[in-house]
């Protein structure tokens, strides 16, 4: 019966972020938080494994102090307990290097796990680095781009999606697995599950208790600025009576744009 830990990120809901018309800067003042969409797939994958094979699932997250708001949503999706690390000063500058150092140190501190699941990337920066970095820091194998997971006689059978091909492998835990969105459809927690989440255990982990050195908390990547991107459409309409003529004009216009 596997012990599964799933890592997730609390991000701003991109639907609430506005682009200012003048300088294209981002206005996130009214943006609400949510669990990263890709991480919802990871949580669902962890819970489905436990529902099918037994064992337990726990959740782990790192962010600013607002990350505590995510616990109820995360736990309502099925994990039996959650750990959270909230630090405004570090989270504001955290890149993948810092985040992975903190998550790996927290994993060492909490328990031993057979599987550590992560989403393919996060909804905000999507750098796809957290899972490989955690595996490297913990010195355990990693399997990426996974679309199916099963367990047979203590071995994990994972199917990876690689372009137009798939690759099926077996691996013995402990291991890190990053999953693709198509691995499942995350459940929408029922009212009963939401209410039950409030009774599940959660624990805060302080960054100061993780034994990390100062260099472990220094970002390797510094974001200088964020700006929105506005697509200007030409809105050209082709209104010829013949569809063939419309297609011909479309092809001609595309050719003028250098698209062949």
Question: Your description of this structure?
Answer:
The chain contains seven helices and 13 strands. The mean pLDDT is 93. The protein is globular. It is an alpha/beta fold. Strand 10 and strand 11 (165-171) form a beta hairpin. The protein has a nine-stranded mixed beta sheet with strand order 11-10-9-12-8-1-6-7-13, sandwiched between helices. A two-stranded antiparallel sheet has the order 2-5. Strands 3-4 form a two-stranded antiparallel ribbon. Helix 4 packs across helix 5.
Q: In brief, what are we looking at here?
A:
The protein is an alpha/beta fold and 260 residues long. The protein is built from 7 helices and 13 strands.
Main sheet attributes: strand count, strand direction, barrel closure: 9 strands, mixed
Spans with pLDDT under 50 lasting ≥5 residues?
A: none
Give me the Rg, rounded. Answer: 22 Å
Shape: globular
The overall strand count is: 13
Following the backbone from N to C, one meets helices and strands in this order, namely EEEEEHEHEHHEHEEEEHEH
Helix percent reads 25-40%
Keywords:
single chain, 260 residues, alpha/beta, nine-stranded mixed sheet, two-stranded antiparallel sheet, 13 strands
Topology of this structure?
Elements (H helix, E strand, L loop, with lengths): L2 E6 L1 E3 L5 E2 L6 E2 L5 E3 L1 H17 L2 E8 L7 H6 L4 E6 L1 H4 L4 H15 L4 E5 L10 H9 L3 E11 L2 E8 L2 E7 L3 E5 L11 H7 L4 E3 L38 H14 L4
Parallel strand pairs: 1-6, 1-8, 6-7, 7-13, 8-12, 9-12
Antiparallel strand pairs: 2-5, 3-4, 9-10, 10-11
Helix pairs in contact: 4-5
């Amino acid at each position: 019966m596997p012990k599964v830990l799933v890592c997730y990120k609390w991000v701003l809901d991109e639907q609430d972020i506005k682009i200012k018309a003048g300088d294209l800067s981002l206005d996130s003042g009214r943006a609400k938080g949510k669990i990263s969409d890709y991480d919802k797939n990871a949580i669902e994958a962890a819970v489905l494994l436990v529902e099918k094979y037994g064992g337990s699932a726990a959740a782990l997250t790192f962010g600013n102090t607002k990350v505590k708001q995510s616990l109820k949503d995360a736990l309502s999706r099925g994990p039996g307990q959650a750990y959270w690390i909230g630090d405004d000063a570090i989270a504001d500058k955290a890149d993948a290097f810092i985040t992975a150092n903190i998550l790996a140190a927290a994993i060492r501190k909490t328990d031993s796990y057979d599987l550590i699941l992560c989403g393919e990337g996060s909804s905000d920066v999507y750098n796809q680095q957290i899972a490989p970095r955690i595996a490297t820091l913990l010195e355990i194998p990693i399997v990426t781009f996974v679309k199916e997971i099963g367990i047979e006689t203590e071995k994990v059978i994972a199917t990876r999606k690689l372009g137009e091909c798939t690759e099926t492998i077996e691996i013995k835990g402990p291991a890190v697995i990053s999953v693709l969105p198509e691995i499942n459809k995350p459940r929408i927690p029922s009212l009963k599950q939401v209410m039950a989440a409030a009774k599940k255990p959660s624990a805060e982990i302080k960054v100061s208790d993780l034994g990390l050195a100062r260099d472990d908390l220094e970002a390797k990547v510094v974001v200088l600025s964020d700006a929105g991107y506005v697509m200007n459409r030409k809105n050209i309409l082709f209104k010829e009576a013949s569809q063939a003529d419309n297609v011909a004009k479309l092809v001609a216009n595309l050719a003028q744009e250098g698209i062949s």
